Amino acid sequence: MKKIIAILLALATILSLSACKVNKNNGESEPYDANDYQANLNKIEEEQSKKAAKEAEKASEVNAEIDEYIEKVGKTNPKTQIVVKSNYALGRKYLKFEFNKKGEFENHFVYYFFDTYENYRAVYESEKNRDSVTVVDHDKDTQMVVVRLDEYPESTYDEVYKIYSSEATIGLGFTLVE
Questions:
Q1: How many Å apart are CA 18 and CA 23, to the nearest integer?
Q2: pLDDT tens profile 141-172
Q3: How far is CA 68 from CA 80, 134, 152, in A?
Q4: Which residues share a beta bridge with 134?
Q5: How far lies 41's CA from each of 8, 23, 139, 154, in Å?
Q6: 58-72, pLDDT tens digit by residue?
Q7: How many structural domains is the chain composed of?
Q8: Could you tell me the pTM of the whole model?
Q9: CB count, 10 Å around CB of 112?
Q10: Same domain for 27 and 47?
Q11: Are residues 85 and 54 in the same domain?
Q12: Is 99 in contact with 88 (CB distance < 8 Å)?
């Protein structure tokens, strides 16, 4: 949408400025040459096309980095790890619960992948200033923040798995990644 508005503004500016062409020798106006107008229009369209291609390439690289990081988040493994994907209005969110070999709770991580830089920045700033939370990783290019919750519940693998595999929790937008 922003690109379309930028193109329309550029075209409006060209049209308003190109209604007449000033003769540099004596400052008088003369009719604007249609060939010059078309050449300028073609140049603007070419620049916009190159810019859009660069943005698409960068977005593709960022999405590949995010997918690679999500692979590192992992999947639910019996007795050692539970990974939950959550519906999140600002982007993607994953919860990762880690357990020792006895099934006792050890770590809880939250992985955020934001749709906009502004959302990334706002959550990063709020999370890094919270008590009981440690920001363990963040990246402004991929708009990702990973936090570890420092206060752990007294839970076991079976209890957490039961919560996130229940119909009520699934109905709230949580999905086990298996």
A1: 13
A2: 889 999 999 887 778 899 989 988 888 888 88
A3: 21, 22, 27
A4: 148
A5: 11, 21, 38, 66
A6: 878 877 888 888 887
A7: 2
A8: 0.66
A9: 22
A10: yes
A11: no
A12: no
